[in-house]
Each structure stands twice: as structure tokens, then as C-alpha cells.
Amino acid sequence: MPLEINLSGKLALVTAASRGIGFGVARVLARAGADLVINARDPEALRRAREAIREETGRHVEVAPGDLTRREDLERIAAVAREVGGPHIFFFSTGGPRPGRFLDLGMEDWDYAYRLLLYPAVYLTRELLPAMIERRWGRIIYLASLAIKEPMPNLALSNVVRISIAGLVRTLAREVGSYGVTVNGILPGIIHTSRVEELARDIQAREGVSYEEALSRLSSGIPAGRLGRPEEVGYLVAFLASDYASYINGAMIPVDGGRQVSVF
Asked: Which domains, from first to last, does the chain contain?
């Protein structure tokens, strides 16, 4: 019998799910049979994402609009997730902080990066984890960045703040693994999203090259010869969310087309 990832009967909370990697992950999880609670800041964009996923997969999709940097919005997102039964799967994703080199950035940028990249991951995990422990089954998957292994030019905020996610993954894996809850992280390389398009426009402005040349520079050096697709991150998330991955815990897994050159 062929292997098949089947997430029927599971509920997943996916943040930043109206576009980019979050939307790609939500689509794949729904195609694997999971029902969803999806979050994004823009209610209209979130509604469009819900309708697209429903039309494609027929799965039940609830929306939880909110800004991940606002405590009151995080409280509402957690409340929506609890009202529909409590997620079995939590995929945490965010947009990126402002690009820039260290001396280009003010302290307000560092404060915002913390509130965007780390605080909501911790807050929502604290809200969702007790039910997973009680159920003795759960999957927590955080999106980080390849930048935590190989700092990237002009991305000082991501290079520094996202490293905290690796510490969160390893800490939780040790603390909750015995309860049937696995905690892992994903390190995407350069995935073709609006964030990457933003980086390309920044290169275009700083270096005076065309947008096409800037985008080409971002994909150079990738052995796969192209940028990744959001759904390709989703396939790994679906696997990690399945019972096939029950012995994968505390891992930080790259999805980068072979771009990472460091051994560890």
C-alpha cells in the first residue's frame, strides 16, 4: 500500500496565512485533510485565502484576523483556536522585519523585530500547548530562516532575532517530547514570496540594477537553479505534522534547494 499523509481529524492553526509561505502551508495541510484556523492582519486578504482553500479542498476553515505584534490580537487568535476545539498542529510564520544593515537600524526596529518574530511564537505556544499535552499528541512547527546558520547580507534583524526560535525549538523538544508533542523548526532558503520581491526591490534601489537582475541575483548560487515555492515548505510541514514524523523532535530543517554550504 502506498504511503499517504492523512491529517483528517486534525485541526491546524497557521499564522500569516493570507499569502506567501503561510498560505502555501495552509493549502497543503488542507489538501492532506486537516481543518484550519488561519490568521493574517488583513481581514479581506484572509477572507480571500479562506475561500480559495475551501474551494480547492472542501475543508473547514475558520479565520482569526489579527496583528501578531499586538497582545490583544494574540488573545483573540488564541480564543478562536480554543473555540473550535484546540489545534493539534501549530505552524508559526510571520512576515519579515525591515531589511537593513546593523547601523541602518534604530532601536525601534529591534523592538518591532522581537515583537514580530519571537513574542507571538512564545505567547501562542503557551496558550496552545496545555491542550496538546493533555491530548498527548501535538505538532509545533516554527518557521525561522536559513539566516540563523548563515547570516545574510542586509538582513541584520532576521540574522540576530530569529536565532531565538532555534533555542525555543530545542528547549520545548526536551520539555514536552514525553507527552507526544514534537517541536521542530524549518529554515527556508529563498522562497518566491512578496518578501523576496521586497528584497529584490531593495537591491534594485541600492545598486541601480533592474528588478529582474536583482531577483536573478537572489537565486544565484542555489544548486536547484531556482527559487523555492511556498508549497514546497508546506510539504515538509505536512510530513512533520503526521505520525510518520513522530520521532523527529528538536530538528531545524533547511528547505533551500541546497543553498546552505556549512556542514552544521
From this structure: 11-190+229-255 (3.40.50.720), 192-227 (no CATH)
